[in-house]
Amino acid sequence: MAKHIFVTGGVTSSLGKGIISASLAKLLQERGLNVTIQKFDPYINVDPGTLNPYEHGECYVTEDGAETDLDLGHYERFLNKHTSQANNVTTGRIYQTVINKERSGDYLGKTVQVIPHITDEIKRRARLLEASDNYDIIITEIGGTAGDIESLPYLEALRQLRQEMGSTNLICLHLTLIPYLRAAKELKTKPTQHSVKELLQTGIQPDILVCRTEHPITDEIRAKISRFCNVNKNSVIEAIDAETIYDVPLLMLKEKLDVIVLRKLKLKVGEEPEMKAWKKFLGRLKNPTNVVNVGLIGKYNELQDAYKSIYEAFVHAGAHNECKVNVTPIHSQDLEDDRFIQKIENLDGVLIAPGFGERGIEGKINAIKYVRENKIPFFGICLGLQCAVVEFSRNVLKLKNAQSEEVNENAKHKVVHFMPDQLQIEQKGGTMRLGAFDCKLKKNSISAKAYGSLDISERHRHRYEINNEYVADLRKAGLIPVGINPENKLVEIMELKGHPHFVGVQFHPELKSTVENPHPLFMAFVDACLQYRKGNR
Ligand code: GLN
Q1: CA distance 291 to 289
Q2: Sheet harboring 502-505: ordered strands across?
Q3: What is the pLDDT of residue 251?
Q4: Is 2 helix (H, G, I), strand (E, B) or coil?
Q5: How confident is the model at residue 536 (pLDDT cuts 50, 70, 90)?
Q6: What pLDDT, on the 0 to 100 scale, is given for residue 303?
Q7: Mutation test of ligand 1: which of 59, 382, 460, 490 has the most ligand atoms closer than 8 Å to its C-beta?
Q8: Which of 356, 364, 467 to mutate to test the pocket of ligand 1 (most atoms within 8 A of CB)?
Q9: Which of 213, 359, 369, 429 has a CA 20 to 30 Å removed from the CA of 278?
Q10: Cis peptide before 273 (omega within 30 of 0)
């Protein structure tokens, strides 16, 4: 039977519950256990697919086409294992299930209530993955902070589950903050005491406290936290600010978080994991022999989380190439006047980000024209490919006013248009072309060489697609479709003949990049940027 670890957060949000969960999972995985992580989000949206990235960061897409929280990206990047729809549950989804059951008469005669109906559904979801893959351990991260009104049903469900399963089958890890008061030169434990009290009010005594801190926590502080919070001193774990998120598994190893967890769950401890591959990756990441400067042109740049997976894919690919990749976010709207060249001319490569809507499109198109003509490495993702096709149609095919249907549905040349099966769809949630689809590559293309294979599968999230009516003309003029979906013939990848590296993809390669498997297209792009830099400076 799978054992459970629940991870809650206290004091503030953004303490890195996702990274702590992923790091713990990694250590347990390295010890030979089969581990997965799921995220419970207390908001009422059924999934984050309809949320603006400013609200919630990137929307991460799984193989099976679920639009999920970005923490699932961390889980996959650390564990090198796919997650699925079942790994992300929201309050919206819980209520939707309960309300659907009520409508179909499942509770006939009964008043439907938060306790027991909503909490039962949370408990059912919490254990759903037990049946799927013989997991030894399931880690459940509960979004939000202890004390939030909207987290209460989750904490109540957790209390009940712990009662039902017993304390050696389910443990609670609470991530909390130990703030440092500069004026007093002191670390303060009071907020942690309060947040544990908050949990106690819901009937949950945490087994382990992981303490985020800017400075090392002394033995004395550990003893104090232990005394006030009723947690063993060796279960008070320091989580000091790290240089990179990829340091955290090793920091947790040093703190013996994995050993403490295994002992509490009455599982065999065994040898300490060597973490060989992980350490090798970190060694390369921290000792680069080269550097490249890449521009990330998008419209949500104020928030790094909006392009989380892209940034991380550059970290993986950079480490692999022993090359530091400096990513400069550039606002596409800032590229809409004549001075745009100054912002991109010194870059070693340009990535045009995915996105939705009209804002900033012309800036992206300006940048693409410049890098196309000046042979600067280009990588377009989803909307990035679509903009490349619009630019090429306007400036090379001379189709004046060529446009994407997303921007102008009345344009004469809709070189990017609604996919036929999207036309009838009215509902916005979960209705894009989502998840993994196959793609056949053209021999000798940059992409085929990067993948080392002609058959690939990548994840998607879009409504619009390259209009096949224009593909013959695009190809004749040099913009070649080198990746095609074998079933419906949709264009998945285009490359520009005669350009050292001009690759646009309709899918999201960044979602499949992991520490152990950096994405081939990111590695090839970083390499192209390096070559460009060497040739030019
Ligand atoms: N807005 C575009 C579409 O829906 C691109 C989507 C994306 O970049 N993910 O097709």
Answers
A1: 7
A2: 323-331, 290-298, 349-352, 378-381, 502-505, 491-496, 479-484, 433-441, 455-462
A3: 98
A4: coil
A5: low
A6: 85
A7: 382
A8: 356
A9: 213
A10: no
